[in-house]
Amino acid sequence: MPLTFLCVSSYEKGHDFMRECKAQGCRVILLTSKSLKDAPWPKESIDEIFYIQDKNKDWDLKDVIYGVSYLARSEKIDRIVALDDFDVEKAAALREHLRVPGMGDTTARYFRDKLAMRIRAKETGIPVPEFMHILNHENINRFTEEVPFPYIVKPRMLAGAHGIKKINNKEELWDRIKELGDEQSFFLMERFIPGNIYHVDSIVYENEMRFAIANQYGKPPFEVAHSGKVFTSRTVKHGSDIERKLLELNEKVLKAMGLVRGVSHTEFIEADEDGKLYFLETSARVGGANLAELIEAASGINLWREWAKIEILRGEGEYKYPEVKSDYAGIILSLAKQESPDLSAYDDEEIVWQLKKKNHAGLIVKSDSYERVEELINNYTKRFYNDFFATQPMKERPGD
User: Fold this and answer.
1) Other CB atoms within 10 A of residue 16 CB
2) Which segments of the chain does DSSP mark as H helices, in order?
3) CB atoms < 10 A from the CB of 318, how many?
4) In CATH, what number does 195-387 get?
5) How many other CB atoms are found less than 10 A from the CB of residue 356?
6) pTM reported for the whole predicted model
7) Was domain 4-102 assigned CATH 3.30.479.20?
8) Model confidence at 159: pLDDT above 90
């Protein structure tokens, strides 16, 4: 009897995940926001779509549980998968309620709650920037006496750069804390460490690391979102010392957080002051900002499809993935002042992908040469600022 997948996504993504499930004979049900009713979902690979009323992308969890429980009267749901970071808790709560196998509430916390993942990392000896829960004011004052500014104040549960503020002194800190009001306990603060930021994207199956690739951001995502910058990322040089260190630390992080199987996007910073790597955050999902396309260009591995294969197997069979390539790739993305940016002047043979999205410009380059990718991304970054670049204020919360 074919498996039935309930895919939960409050954002439009995961097309290849659903396509792979359907290709392997599964029944695919999508639960998404009513505001995405007209989104170009891969309907040929989806058997049914159910919509949740949403306000600024927020779903009422009780409504979700009621709705899916009603659906379960007629559908035997075998797998529940969150396709977006914002849906990890929803999927975990549904699994707990319906007793469907997979990551439950406790483990999901380590992949969504930035405070929980930092505490867990510190407990297991993984370097993290000094941090403090915004809870007890006496502890906060002690922290400010012991840890130098600036700080980053960030929400525990939001994704990306939403809700993050850089704080330069004690007065700014208490102004921000007062501004948060009753939301204070849902935030943390940590020492701001300047440096290079990296992401490692992984596949884990039955507690074993099966694939991992390291990439370096151009500008930090926080700076891209809040200061208005062009976003870039590119493959770290294969065999380099920094690649080795990143892959080793990434494996320690995922073991500490308890990822048994699935995919992960994990971020680290290499501090300018001492060259030390610190863990920033992790997740149990495919990275956003078209990083899946970047990784596929460099390695040949489609993380969405591999994740689907893993969820189908769930330890009941041997997992095999395609041969991994060792090429290099780089991605560049920007908000665009034009509704439909013309990228025809970007015609180097290394370009393998272009973004098709209103008021956005983006492309991916691929080469067997690390230096060539660096050259192209650096050159294109300058050109993007002249040709397309636009900016808008970062919203406090997605959907605001």
Assistant:
1) 22
2) 15-23, 61-71, 88-98, 105-110, 114-123, 137-146, 170-180, 221-227, 241-257, 291-299, 303-313, 370-387
3) 7
4) 3.30.470.20
5) 9
6) 0.93
7) no
8) no
